[in-house]
Amino acid sequence: MVQALSLVALAATAASVSAGVVKIPLKPRASGANVPVTDWFNRTDNQWYSTISVGTPPQELSTCTTCGDKKLFDSSKSKSFSNKPGTRRQALFSTGADSIPFTVPEGASGLVVHDKVALGDLSVASQQFLLCDKYAAALDVMPIDGIMGMGPPSSGSEKAWYWNLYADGQLDAPVFSFYTPPGDINGGELTLGGIDDTKFVGKLNYTAFSGGGFTLAQSSILINGKALTGTSAKGSAILDTGTAFMQTPSYAVAKALYAQISSKITQIDSAGAWGAECDVLDQVAPDLTFVLGPSGSALKLTIPKSSFNLGEYPGQPGICQALFNNPLSNFGAWLVGSPLLKQYYTAWDGVNKRIGWGQLKADGSALIEMA
Predict the structure, then answer these.
(1) Residue 251 three-state SS
(2) Which of 192, 223, 252 is the last residue of a domain?
(3) 304 CB neighbour count, 10 Å cutoff
(4) Which residues, 6+ apart, have CB-to-CB distance to 326 below 8 Å?
(5) Tens of pLDDT along 126-163?
(6) Is the C or the N end of the chain the one with fewer CB within 10 Å?
(7) Record's superkingdom (predicted)?
C-alpha cells in the first residue's frame, strides 16, 4: 500500500498489533528483490497484501483470514522493542481496504514506538510505527493486520520503512515496483529496490511527479474516446495502490462524469458511492482513458470497461457499484487507485520523482500512448 506516511501504521485488535512472517523467501534478481503479494478483495481484484515480521525474535503470527481472531504482537517478548517516544496518535481513513466509503472517517489510535520490522530478508533494526490499541469496528472486517506506508522520501528524522532500507544500503536503487495483474489471485509481486523486466512488454514509459508526493498532473479524461466536458477533468491526480476505487475531486464532478456516461447511474450511498442494476452497469460501462503527466511527456492510460463494475453493493441486492466514488467534501484532486494502477506494471522512483508505466505481458488490453 503506497501512502505518504513517515511511519508504519499497524492497525489491529484490542490491545496491540499483529503481523505475520513471509513464508516464501525473497528472490534476488539483478535489479531488486521480489516479494509475493496475494489478492484478497472479496469482490474484485483491487487489493493485495503480503506479510511482515515485527520484533526480535520475529513473532511468527498467522495472516488473518477471518479477522475475528487476530494473534497479537507482544512487545514484552521483543528484545529490540522501544516504547519511545510514546506519543499518542490517530490515523483516520475514508474507506476500509475495499471500495465501500464510510459515512464518517474511521480509524485507529495508539502509541508511536520503535522495533525491528522485516519483510523476508530485508529488515530495519529500529523502525518507527504506530502500535494501535484502539480501532474502529469497520476495520476489523479486513483480512490484514496493518498498513505499511511506502510514500516518497521524507526530509524529517523519521523515514518510512522502505527509505530506511535504502539509506542503509540494502537496496540497489530508490525504486519499488508493483505487478498486480487483473484477474489474478496469487501472481502479484512487489519488487523492492528495482524492476522485474519479465513482467512487462518493451520498455517503461516515465512521467514526472508534480509537487512533493506521488501526484501527477491530469489534463483530460476520455470516455469511450470523448473528452469529459468542461474543465472538471483537469487538475491533479494522487496515485495510491492502497485505494480500491477511483475518486473524483467533488460530488459535482462525479455527477457530471456519470451524466456523460449514463443517466441510469445514480448515487447509491450518501457516503459517496454510485451505481446501477448490475446488468445495466455492465451494459453502459465505458473505456476510460486518463491523460496524466506534464505537458510534453503526458501519457494516455486506460481502464477498460471490464473494470468499471466494482461488484454488488453490500445491503443492496442486484445493485452494483460503479468505478468512481465522490468525497464527502470537496477533495480538490482526483484519487487514482488500483483500478487504473493494476492495468500496468508501475515503477515508483521517489528520489528522481517519476513513475514508469509498462504494458503487462499477461494482458495487453491496456495500452500506453503518448498524449
Answers:
(1) helix
(2) 192
(3) 18
(4) 247, 248, 250, 251, 253, 254, 255, 267, 272, 274
(5) 999 988 888 777 776 666 677 788 888 887 778 899 99
(6) C
(7) Eukaryota
Angle, alpha carbons 323-192-189 (nearest 5°): 50
Task: Please check whether residue 214 lies inside any domain of the structure.
Answer: yes
The pLDDT value given to residue 282: 97
Domain boundaries, position 356: 200-370
Say yes or no: 285 and 163 in one domain: no
How sure is the predictor about 28, in pLDDT bands with cuts at 50, 70 and 90? very low
Distance CA 263, CA 185 (A): 34
Q: Are residues 187 and 204 in the same domain?
A: no
Helix (H) or strand (E) holding 339: helix 338-341
Supply the CATH number for residue 146's domain: 2.40.70.10
Pairwise CA distance, residues 80 & 68, whole Å: 28
2 in any annotated domain: no
Residue 364 falls within a domain, yes or no?
Answer: yes
Of 147, 166, 192, the one marking the end of a domain is: 192
Q: Which whole number is the average pLDDT over 277-287?
A: 98
Both 184 and 240 in one domain: the answer is no
What confidence category does residue 23 fall into, taking pLDDT thresholds of 50, 70 and 90? very low
Q: Percentage of residues in the chain with pLDDT exceeding 90?
A: 55
Same domain, 165 and 314: no
**Which three cell numbers, joined as nine digits, stand for 72?**
497479537
Type of residue numbered 246: M
The Cα–Cα gap between 283 and 261 comes to: 11
Residue 5's pLDDT band (cuts 50, 70, 90): very low
Dihedral sign of CA atoms 294, 295, 298, 300 in order: positive
Both 245 and 207 in one domain: the answer is yes
Please report the pLDDT score of residue 336 as a whole number.
Answer: 96
